[in-house]
Structures are given as C-alpha cells and as structure tokens.
Amino acid sequence: MTELEAVYARHSVRRYQPVAVPNDKAEALIEKLAALNRESGLSLTFLRDAGDVFGRLMARAMGLASAPSAILCFGPDRPGLEEETGFYGEAAVLFAQQIGLNTCWVGMYNRKSALVIPPKGQRLTLAIAVGLGQDGGKPRNSKKTEQVSAGPDDKPAWFKKGIELSLLAPTAINQQKFLFTLREDGTVELSGQEGPFYRVDLGIVKYHFLLGAREMGASPDVITV
Ligand SMILES: Cc1cc2nc3c(=O)[nH]c(=O)nc-3n(C[C@H](O)[C@H](O)[C@H](O)COP(=O)(O)O)c2cc1C
C-alpha cells in the first residue's frame, strides 16, 4: 500500500485483536521511527507492550485499553513541539497503516503508566495506540472544502488535492479547526482555531496537505501562523 492509499484507508481504530504486534511489523515500525527521529530531533518511541497506558477511564471506555502497543511521542521542550509531533507522528501513523497496522492518536492516556524515562530535556506530548484492529474503523463526518480553505476562486489542482487529503486527516474530537489559505505569492498559510490539541492537529493536516500537493507535482511552502 502506498502512503497515499494509506490516507484513504486509515480510520481511528479503538478496538484491537488480543494479539501482539507481529515481529516483522514491529521491526519495520521501529526502523521508521528511528528515521523520523533523525530527521526531526523528536524521540518517537515504540512501546511494544502498552501495559496500562490506555487504561485511563476515558480511554478504557473508548475500548483503547485493548491496544497492545503504543508510540510515545517525546520531543524537546521547545516552541512548535506540538505541531512537529503532529507532523512526524502522522508520518508514523500512515506508515503503520501501510504495513497493515491500525492506530489511534490518544490525548487522554495514562501518563504515569508510560514507564519510559523521557530523554533529557524532552517531554511526552501524546500517545498513539497501535495494533491489529478488530476491523479497519469507519469513515466519519467531515467539514467541506469551503470550510477549510480560502484564496482565489480558481485554485490549482495541487491545492485542491492538498485540501482533499487534509480533510481525511485525524484531528482531536474530529474538530477540523484549520484553514489553508492560498496567498497571491503561491505560498500557503495554515491557521487554526483554539481547541484541544489543535496545534498537534495543525502538524497532522500539514503532513496530509503536503502529501496531496506533492502528488500533483508541487511542493509549496506552508507557513503556520
Ligand atoms: C491530537 C489528537 C488527539 C486524539 N485523542 C483521542 C483520545 O484521547 N481518545 C480517542 O478515542 N480518540 C482520540 N483521537 C482520535 C480522533 O477522535 C479521531 O481522529 C477523529 O474523530 C477523526 O476520526 P478518524 O481518525 O477516524 O478520521 C485523537 C486525535 C488526535 C488527532
């Protein structure tokens, strides 16, 4: 499965099969996380046994306690960490989908049970549930193109594809509080509205948008404001 196909196939999965992530998939994911960490300076960490990370009441109620594994998103405590976490974490989520794993970003997890010592100067932002889903999840409601984009009427194909893929991106409580504006100089402005984890959402939708633009042969500058 290509990364683009993974965008269309991915849905948040909250109920998992009671089996461990197979060795070959775990190894591939660990390798991918290492590459993303080298590029970003983050420390996305695969926790083979998620233990009680998703045991918190809310997460349990959502079924997430069944997730066998987790990715813990550590990163340097600096401005922009949330957005970077979204951007690179989503790269990991789509990779997981490509190799046949299911995922769910989780903001409401059990921090105390994430029994991994954070690398020095780094902090834990989010967790991502990982495993073999009982199913692949299902499509949900989405905002419309006009609600998340602005600019001239005749927008180029790469911008439209970017918007299409951004609407397929996961956002906290499906809030989709983002707006891509095509500026006259051809750059793209990305803004968000206050909401839980909305800065993480911005990184996630930016990753999807750029994937769509690249698919159409463009590599625009996307500037988050
Ligand atoms: C930053 C972030 C935090 C999230 N936190 C939770 C969570 O704590 N519990 C949960 O069940 N889902 C959580 N989700 C999953 C969203 O509810 C889900 O992405 C959204 O409803 C859209 O559905 P989809 O991912 O299937 O497209 C989170 C998603 C994101 C991006």
What does it look like?
By secondary structure, the protein is α/β, with parallel strands linked by helices. It has two domains: 129 residues, 3-Layer(aba) Sandwich (NADH Oxidase), CATH 3.40.109.10; 80 residues, putative nitroreductase (tm1586), domain 2 (NADH Oxidase), CATH 3.40.109.30. 36% of the residues lie in helices and 19% in strands. It has seven helices and eight strands. The chain has a four-stranded antiparallel sheet. The protein has a four-stranded mixed sheet with strand order 5-6-7-8. The site of flavin mononucleotide (FMN) has 22 residues, from strand 3 and helix 7.
Q: CATH homologous superfamily of the largest domain?
A: NADH Oxidase
* Uncertain segments: none
Note the run of SSEs as H and E.
Answer: HHEHEHEEHEHEEHE
Going across the major beta sheet, what is the strand order?
1-2-4-3
Sheet bearing the most strands, described? 4 strands, antiparallel
Rg value = 17 Å
- Overall SS class: alpha/beta
- Specify the CATH class of the largest domain: Alpha Beta
What percentage of amino acids are in beta strands? 15-25%
What is the topology?
Layout: H1 3-9, H2 23-40, E1 43-47, H3 57-61, E2 69-76, H4 81-98, E3 102-106, E4 122-131, H5 145-148, E5 149-150, H6 157-166, E6 178-182, E7 188-192, H7 198-215, E8 222-224
Parallel strand pairs: 5-6, 7-8
Antiparallel strand pairs: 1-2, 2-4, 3-4, 6-7
Helix pairs in contact: 1-4, 2-4, 4-7, 6-7
The chain binds flavin mononucleotide (FMN).
Key attributes of the depicted protein:
4-stranded mixed sheet, 7 helices, NADH Oxidase, 225 residues, 4-stranded antiparallel sheet, alpha/beta, 2 domains, binds flavin mononucleotide
